[in-house]
């Protein structure tokens, strides 16, 4: 493992608009239409703005490698496989999740407006970044939004010694009367694999509760952890929920599940073949939207106003810290890992993208 770097050495403050323009230039250079390139860039930079760097611009080099090798396509339109009114099955044709996912959740929202609930199951998909973005899409349209995905196996069964299920992410977003959504976004491992990759790039150790080495022994070495297995959040509970998400995504859609979902960072010429589920619930058709949003706001106020433990100044709702961080960083600059910036600029050079000037603030 490399020597640990200081915070000042490993983090860079950049302009969000510059970061979006640079990422967009990369995806335009590899063959995407300008509007699609911007959509991908905005989704990735939003993750960095919210402090979820594992799903932000650090992914660009991997995406470019997979695009160049043929493991992900430039298809953008979903192919509707079956349409049962409130429920659809769609085929993403191996395209970027940042392009297929807003279409899928858009369909779910539209169906929820007609039937009270809309469900879109997507197969032959590719990594969609932060799940919260797609759940929030529904919440911003007045619906409860749920988004989930399966991933390549990363975690063992309790007591097991082989990768069996992914750390399958789940996000739920709830609209409130105040306009600020309650947003849960979680992977079902103790941490996302991207956080371990960031630690490895920065030369930082990890807690021994995050992952094991290839022999199944807990490790603080992120390089060993990448080769080993992630540990489920909450032990058997995290494993069980991850398994059920594999059912609700891959098994239900007729897409990949278990080790049919290919690794993102290996075999770049092979389709990822993950699967997604998008669910929108319209409170208007289930008792009234205004009443629901007021009640959700009451629940939020109850959480914020509850008793604090000694030394704790404030309590937060799920997603509140990320929303406040994003608002601050949009105004003052987004802090990203230097290794992530270096990877982005290297990818830009490799594909001949023109990088705008004046992005770095420190």
UniProtKB/TrEMBL annotation:
Pfam family, any one: Ldh_2
Keywords from the named record: Oxidoreductase
An MF annotation (GO) of this entry: oxidoreductase activity
Keyword Oxidoreductase attributed: yes
Gene source species: Kribbella albertanoniae
Alphabetized InterPro entries for the sequence: Mal/L-sulf/L-lact_DH-like_ah (IPR043144), Mal/L-sulf/L-lact_DH-like_NADP (IPR043143), Mal/L-sulfo/L-lacto_DH-like_sf (IPR036111), Malate/L-lactate_DH-like (IPR003767)
Family: Belongs to the LDH2/MDH2 oxidoreductase family.
Name listed for the protein in its UniProt record: Ldh family oxidoreductase
């Amino acid at each position: 493992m490399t020597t640990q770097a200081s915070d000042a050495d490993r983090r860079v403050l950049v302009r969000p608009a510059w970061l979006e323009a640079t990422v967009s230039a990369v995806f335009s250079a590899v063959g995407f239409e300008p509007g699609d390139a911007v959509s991908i860039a905005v989704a990735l930079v939003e993750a960095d703005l919210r402090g979820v760097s594992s799903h932000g611009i650090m992914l660009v080099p991997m995406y470019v490698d997979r695009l160049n090798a043929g493991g992900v396509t430039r298809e953008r339109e979903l192919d509707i496989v079956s349409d049962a009114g409130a429920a659809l099955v769609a085929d993403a044709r191996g395209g970027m999740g940042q392009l297929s996912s807003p279409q899928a959740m858009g369909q779910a929202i539209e169906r929820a407006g007609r039937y009270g609930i809309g469900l879109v199951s997507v197969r032959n998909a590719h990594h969609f970044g932060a799940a919260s973005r797609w759940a929030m899409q529904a919440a911003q349209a007045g619906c409860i939004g749920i988004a989930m995905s399966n991933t390549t196996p990363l975690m063992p069964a309790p007591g097991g010694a082989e990768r069996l299920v992914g750390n399958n992410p789940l996000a739920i977003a709830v609209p409130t009367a105040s306009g600020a959504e309650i947003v849960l976004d979680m992977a079902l491992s103790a941490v996302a694999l991207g956080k371990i990759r960031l630690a490895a790039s920065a030369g930082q150790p990890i807690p021994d509760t995050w992952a094991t080495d290839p022999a199944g022994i807990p490790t603080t070495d992120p390089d060993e952890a990448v080769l080993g297995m992630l540990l489920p959040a909450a032990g058997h509970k995290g494993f069980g929920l991850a398994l059920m998400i594999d059912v609700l995504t891959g098994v239900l859609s007729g897409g990949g599940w278990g080790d049919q979902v290919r690794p993102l960072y290996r075999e770049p010429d092979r389709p990822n073949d993950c699967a997604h589920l998008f669910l929108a619930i319209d409170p208007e058709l289930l008792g009234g939207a205004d009443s629901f949003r007021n009640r959700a706001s009451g629940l939020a106020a109850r959480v914020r106003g509850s008793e604090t433990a000694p030394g704790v100044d404030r309590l937060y709702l799920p997603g509140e810290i990320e929303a406040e961080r994003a608002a601050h960083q949009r105004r003052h600059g987004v802090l990203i890992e230097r290794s992530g910036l270096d990877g982005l600029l290297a990818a830009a050079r490799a594909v001949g993208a023109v990088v705008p000037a004046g992005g770095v603030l420190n």
